[in-house]
Amino acid sequence: xxxxxxxxxxxxxxxxxxxxxxxxxxxxxxxxxxxxxxxxxxxxxxxxxxxxxxxxxxxxxxxxxxxxxxxxxxxxxxxxxxxxxxxxxxxxxxxxxxxxxxxxxxxxxxxxxxxxxxxxxxxxxxxxxxxxxxxxxxxxxxxxxxxxxxxxxxxxxxxxxxxxxxxxxxxxxxxxxxxxxxxxxxxxxxxxxxxxxxxxxxxxxxxxxxxxxxxxxxxxxxxxxxxxxxxxxxxxxxxxxxxxxxxxxxxxxxxxxxxxxxxxxxxxxxxxxxxxxxxxxxxxxxxxxxxxxxxxxxxxxxxxxxxxxxxxxxxxxxxxxxxxxxxxxxxxxxxxxxxxxxxxxxxxxxxxxxxxxxxxxxxxx
Length: 365
Fold this sequence. Notes:
The protein is mostly helical. Helix content is 67%, strand content 0%. It has 20 helices and no strands.
């Protein structure tokens, strides 16, 4: 009978106060920040509010794929405990992603934003015919870097290979390599560990108090083995470090954007602006258009460069119609370097400080 029960009933039982739409309605009176609750409502909608948005689909594919891969790793790590294996055998299909869909408030705001950035980069690469590590790698390396430096060509090929993993077509519940920064990997790992521990405890095959230490030990082994350097963000950062002072050449940034190497573009911009490349990518995908304009102006971008950047961002910003781009280009002409530098300087502040200031500004109206 256990095997036929739903994931929702296994972990939550009759208490549904934490699921949608209840959490959506109660967000303003709960521990869930209102802005995060709104994001969750978009990414985990009610059945009656289903959205077919490409960015939402890509984000869910990354989130579900990484979580499922982590769950599989945990299941394998627990196989050497017969009583644990017997409990998990009652639930042969992955349970963590269905549980997160039913309980989206398990997901923190920063992790959701990171997954949305990943989804946005994937969407832009996919719609522009992103890198696949194939025969085009050598010609692109020759156009971006000196032919007499094969190490840079190899680093670019490694970046394209890592980007290609993000582009693999699969359903949202199919495993994807969790090439996440260590902090986000740990958050997903503990989420998966909690889901598995809950169903093991419910099985009754092992004392509930004995479950947590066993699952924790398996998760700790996963955490130790995790290598955040395998992801494309880290690969782009490595490539820029190898370039050294050559990374400051304006034509290199233009070439990176032309070839749709968005993460390389973000890493190059981050070096020049003294910002994390992931933050630059986050602004490109989700930030206000005014912040995108400030980044471009602070980098020395011309009016034409800004228009090209907005055109490249269209797959993740469907509001950028031709008329909108014309309007934004006119506003860009009025943006001074001093204003842009001030905006970028504020963006360098710690994320927690910026979030609290934004919250206070919204309260003040």
